[in-house]
Design goal:
The chain is mainly beta. About 10% of the residues lie in helices and about 40% in strands.
Length: about 190
């Protein structure tokens, strides 16, 4: 709970900047928090907020597919006037259709994913995190790792990842990587 962020506040901060983007959508917040325990279990919080800027963005973000077995915390359309729309649950459907999504609206997706300790506890592997996206420019891209204070962490940073900010508490260590204003990645021909 302490690692959750208010989605509406992120949208307000984004809108206050007044920056315009030439893309089908802009990823206002791309955020993942991975919490590791001494037993080897982990829980991952993912919280993304996207503003749809063109019809192509509506096609990409109007249908949301979530990983199997996650606990959905937030899944909604936030309209330009601030009102919200939640998708209907349809039994057997593998995705969620965001209702009334229009250009200028926001899509907010937040969920938890838990993983038990590995059978052969020889170490843990966190999820990959990229500070760039083919889906649109990233306003704020943040990856946070929380682990027990005494746990040795080995970081495999590649591709120009930002340097982590470290916080050391009485029981836990927290590493936070933050990248801001990342341009959209473009697929190169023949890639």
């Amino acid at each position: 709970e302490r690692h959750r962020r208010d989605g509406r506040r992120a949208i307000e901060d984004f809108l206050a900047r007044g920056k315009r983007y030439d893309a089908p959508a802009v990823v206002v917040q791309d955020r993942t928090v991975s919490r590791f325990t001494a037993s080897g279990s982990q829980i991952t919080l993912t919280h993304n907020i996207i503003q749809v800027l063109e019809k192509q963005g509506m096609e990409r973000w109007g249908e949301v597919r979530l990983p199997e077995g996650v606990a959905v915390l937030t899944l909604r359309t936030i309209k330009r006037d601030g009102s919200t729309r939640a998708p209907e649950s349809i039994l057997g459907k593998e995705s969620a259709s965001l209702p009334d999504l229009e250009v200028g609206d926001f899509v907010e997706v937040e969920y938890l994913e838990a993983a038990p300790p590995p059978e052969a506890y020889d170490g843990l592997l966190g999820p990959r995190f990229f500070f760039r996206s083919f889906h649109g420019p990233l306003v704020t891209s943040e990856y946070v790792v929380e682990a027990p204070r005494g746990m040795t962490l080995q970081i495999d940073a590649r591709g120009g990842a930002p340097r982590p900010l470290r916080e050391l508490g009485a029981q836990a260590q927290v590493l936070r990587w933050i990248a801001r204003d990342q341009p959209r990645l473009v697929t190169e021909p023949g890639a």
